[in-house]
Amino acid sequence: MSNFKSGSGNLDFGGSDEDDGEPEPEPTEKTTQTDTESNEGDESTATEQPGEDSRNKTSPGTDSTTSSQKENRESTEESTPATTAREQYPYFIRRSNVGDERDTRLEIHVRDRVADQEAAFRNELAEQLNANEVSKTDAREFALLAAFQHPERVAELMAEEGFGTL
Amino acid sequence: MITAVVYSESGGTYKTTMTANVAVALERMELNTLVLDLDPQEGNLTSLFDAGEHRSDPDADNLVKHILDMPDGEFHDLIETTEEGVDIIPSHDMLGDFTSNLEQKISYETGMKNMSREEYPRFELLHELLWKKQELHKEYDAILIDPNARAEDLLYNAIFALRTLVAPVKPAGKGNLSLEGLEELVGNMENQLDIEIGLSCVVPSGVGQTNAHQQYQQQFENTEEFATPVSIGNRESLMDAMWEARGSAFKVVEERWKTFEKDGQMVSEPGQRRVRDREVETLRRLYELAWFIATTTFDADIDPVLELDIQGHTNRTIDLKEDDKTEATTA
Ligand SMILES: Nc1ncnc2c1ncn2[C@@H]1O[C@H](COP(=O)(O)OP(=O)(O)OP(=O)(O)O)[C@@H](O)[C@H]1O
Ligand SMILES: [Mg+2]
């Protein structure tokens, strides 16, 4: 069952490139985020959708060569030079999908009382950003970024819960 | 936003029945719910919900015309509201000719734009319509699709647009775990269209009391590869009565619809059905299924209290959260 991701798929209602609707709002606080963004750019891949070439008229169900196609695709992806879109446009503008450029999957285990706060946190974020909703993936990635920028706050919280007192 | 295509590879796995019941359960959780019926055949969701008066009128505006961007009216005029509050975009005979209509459109447009046929995004049209043109995520909390069973353009459009599957499965043959076909389809779509498709859960349905059936269900429940929050028993009498009540299993029980012989003829009437504990239990499970999809898969915030207003009986309240607690303490 390796193909199935358990849970929901990567549906995102945010604007795509050719979308004439409003793009997803950019984070308002831009502070030091830029240096992380340029780090990200170092390992960048092309922004062209690699799926385009292999898309064809036959139904996906009848195609049996896709797994090797996928491997091919991944290797070409790595060797394709990065386009300038990466440097020119902020992440939320250039991406068309919530999964775009997010090649690393982090799994975290948390206490219930932490998990229980996530919905409220995302609502609050959406409110601040004037958006309908903020996807879990976006909220989590940027929460992590915020923490990276404020390790002292993180340390404080950990100390409050007795880290290092033994 | 909750989005799910109720689909599994084999036919007759109670997809239509499940779509109706989950949709009504979500609506009862106060989620504004829309269902799309993409199956042009008889016995579809549209006839179950007693909608789609013009489904056989070739001149009537319908979903296909909107998917192909040749509407004959307002999109919102396609939407009907069923008695139980769920909105539906009904089926239409034109769904049966979807692929040939699509081919014509592709020929025309690729000719105009000097584009190759292969480049045409033939599986992305429904996505474009629902989210980009109509922005239905701003209007609804949940959208479900009952696709046509054949693996072709419409099904791929449905999966591309909603990205998440709920898979009802039926004990079959020797009861092996047969999601292979589904897995292959999903894998191929993901690779070719560069999307990620999620499997919310698998729901064994029509599970009888035989050893083979029970083993089959166990096998599914024991696998860690996907979630099986509930299984639904063999409830032919209850589910068949939905087609008479023109609504969900909740409606059948509450209005007590029953089919029986009267003066040598089969008739169906409300106010006749006995209230059976196992049927109430089935309603609880259907509600739990909807709750699982809404909260575990999609992170919605819901108070899972099922109020049953059964005709001629005192109201029953089933609080799934309390069940959860009692299960946790007895475990
Ligand atoms: N849990 C159940 N136990 C027994 N019978 C059921 C159950 N659920 C539904 N049925 C009955 O099975 C029949 C087929 O169900 P349904 O139309 O939902 O299947 P389907 O998967 O949509 O079929 P198709 O592939 O033709 O679209 C209906 O008569 C329905 O009442
Ligand atoms: Mg059906």
User: Number of DSSP strands of chain B?
Assistant: 12
Molecular shape of chain B: globular
Portion in helices of chain B: 40-55%
Distinct compounds present: adenosine-5'-triphosphate, magnesium ion
**Estimated radius of gyration of chain B:** 20 Å
The CATH superfamily of chain B is P-loop containing nucleotide triphosphate hydrolases
Protein name (chain B): ParA family protein
InterPro entries (chain B): AAA_dom, DNA_Partitioning_ATPase, P-loop_NTPase
Domain AAA (chain B): 5-190
Biased composition (Low complexity) (chain A): 78-87
Relevant terms:
heterodimer, A: 166 residues, mainly alpha, 9 helices, 46% helix, globular, B: Rossmann fold, eight-stranded mixed sheet, 12 strands, disordered C terminus, binds adenosine-5'-triphosphate, DNA_Partitioning_ATPase (chain B)
Summarize this structure briefly.
The complex is a heterodimer of chains A (about 170) and B (about 325). Chain A has about 170 residues and is mostly helical.
Describe this structure in words.
The complex is a heterodimer of chains A (166) and B (331). Chain A is mainly α and 166 residues long. In chain A, 46% of the residues lie in helices and 1% in strands. Chain A has a domain at 32-69 and 107-160. Mean pLDDT of chain A is 66; it is low at 15-59 and 61-83. Chain B has 331 residues and is α/β, with parallel strands linked by helices. Chain B contains twelve helices and twelve strands. In chain B, the strands form three sheets. In chain B, strands 3-4-2-5-1-6-7-8 form an eight-stranded mixed β-sheet, sandwiched between helices. In chain B, strands 9-10 form a two-stranded antiparallel sheet. Chain B has a two-stranded antiparallel ribbon with strand order 11-12. Classes of the chains: A mainly alpha (166), B alpha/beta (331). Chain A binds chain B through residues 1-11, 13, 16, 19, 21, 49-52, 54-57, 59-61, 63, 66-67, 69-70, 97, 99, 118-119, 132-133, 136, and chain B through 1, 3, 117-119, 121-122, 131-132, 135, 137-138, 151-153, 156, 161-164, 179, 183-200, 225-227, 296-299, 301. Chain A: Residues 1-102 are annotated as: Disordered. Chain A: InterPro entries: DUF7970 (IPR058276).
